[in-house]
Amino acid sequence: MSSPCSKSGERLRVQLSYDESSPEAGFKDPFVARFGAKLPARKKRCMGKQKAAIYETMYILRPDIGEERTEQSIDKYRTLLQDLGVEKVEIQHRGKRRLAYEIDKHRDGIYIQMNYSGPGSCIATMERSMKMSEEVIRYLTIVQTATEPEPEPEEASEE
Question: How far apart are CA 27 and CA 119, in angstroms?
């Protein structure tokens, strides 16, 4: 069976085949033609409802904003996450600390840490909002690995 993809130069081009037997069928998808209607397990995981994971976001606010604007910024991102369907938002205000290097001509920053569990789709929306904000000078989101307790082996009862 020939592959639906052919290599020409350095580009990878997909060849679509036209189904002439019925005009409403139109072009055939090379993936469906090759693998049938089955989706790989990777694609099945991405479709449908996303499983909630545990995330940690650390962001640094400009040091020259006041305490009131700091609280407004914290509430802004908390409500944004809650509107996106995030559960259990825990926020730790780490305070003003010295940066390891200058960021946008700032030597200090106000560190905020948020731990929460929710769908992965909320991360892009929150980070886009942080990118557009002039108050946030740096942010980072990581996925926490949840360790499940191992079930204790059951002892076989002797009779």
Answer: 35
